[in-house]
Amino acid sequence: MKVAGFGFRCNVTLASLREALAGADGLAVIATVSEKAEEEALKLLARELDLPIRAVPANILAGIATSTRSERIMEKFGTGSLAEATALASAGPNARLISTRATSQDRTATAAIAEGDGE
After folding, report:
1. pLDDT tens digits, 106-119
2. pTM across the whole model
3. Which of 57, 69, 81, 103 has its CA 20 to 30 Å from the CA of residue 63?
4. How far apart are the C-alpha atoms of 115 and 106, rounded to whole Å?
5. Which CATH architecture fits 2-115?
């Protein structure tokens, strides 16, 4: 199963989320931390792609090793990349990153793709 994990700022737009995700195909789920799962731009993207949103509790993300690192995200969530950690946590057992985080030009959205044995 392929999962796109997202991290984004509160003022993110649908266009920025699309840009961060550019080129991804074959996705089964999009995921983000629980506190961001109800953001309108993310819900619009999920409808556009006809994919469910998986909300990942923040405490599950702490300690997940990521390929990239943001000090701000490390301090707040205990992981280096919200996009990478939510993708890995949602892809299921034996998940691995197949695309590290990509950032929109306006730097309000990041996306990463993981693949695993999830449902």
Report:
1. 999 999 999 999 76
2. 0.93
3. 103
4. 27
5. 2-Layer Sandwich (3.30)
